[in-house]
Task: structure prediction
Amino acid sequence: MSSIMELKEFDYDLPPELIAQEPLPSRDESRLMVLDRSNGTILHRRFRDIAGFIPASSLLVMNNSKVFPARLMCRKDRTGGNVEVLLTRQISPFKWEGLVRPGRRVQPGCRLIVEEGVMELEVISRGALGGRTLQVSCSGDFWDLIDRYGLTPLPPYIRKSLHDPSRYQTVYASIRGSVAAPTAGLHFTETLFEELGRKGIDRATVTLHIGPGTFRQVKVDRIEEHSMESEYFTIDEAAMAGIERARSEGRRIFAVGTTSVRTLESAYDREGHLQRKEGFTELFIYPGFSFSIVQGLITNFHLPRSTLLMLVSAFAGADLIRRAYQEAISERYRFYSLGDAMLIL
Result:
């Protein structure tokens, strides 16, 4: 890793009107900034043009985790006060970690009612960062009730409700477990995948369930002192075979999103040897990190002072990312989860 880096090095000023509040009518009509690390050039295109920039026979690795309706509107059994619960991680079939708001008076033993006699939560204990361990009681299938009563968790900077919650899912999302979408993949369509396939560009899917830590602010001045929250990942046999085949044939591996980067770089060591196919990762990638697997990256435009911005700065170089973000602001790109995309070659 590099020498000491300060949080302020990853700050920038963004006009609030550039924070995308809703998706565009078509996924692939978002803008695409193409950033070439070899010569520092920046091009402006549409996402539907991306096949023209990814080398033939490359492998795209994407995160197939699916956002589930993790927000539950509850009331306290004793006082009737309203409490919002965000389920963040399943510990066992009926035991979850979660966040509560307002949470100051939600202590162990408190019962939170989603629907009387149908779904209730009991607070078992307090955890780190204000979290709670919750025991779930329900009269029917848990996931059916989550689908019935739960709401889609959206990032705090999105102030509008989505008319179509499926637009906060990738078209290939299949394994539920995330409280935030792997947003770089939101731009892909089945038609675009067909075009990429005709060019000989393969796909592999991995899974990393995104937790609320993706939105948490870094609060230390020296970024090396920041600790990531652990997130579960897995790479199945089919994906592993595709990745190993691409590597043996010398084909380029493009990660779709920062979560795919963290999955791949957590599975392999710095010499490129496979270490594990599943587990929890707390990998924090910032400038100075040595990438062993990922050779190209598709990503969105990230919040200032965020670990996601630090990751892309590690991949492309902090100075180049700084210049690219300033150009994106000048060109009025749409930022954050529902915004435009960047391809880093």
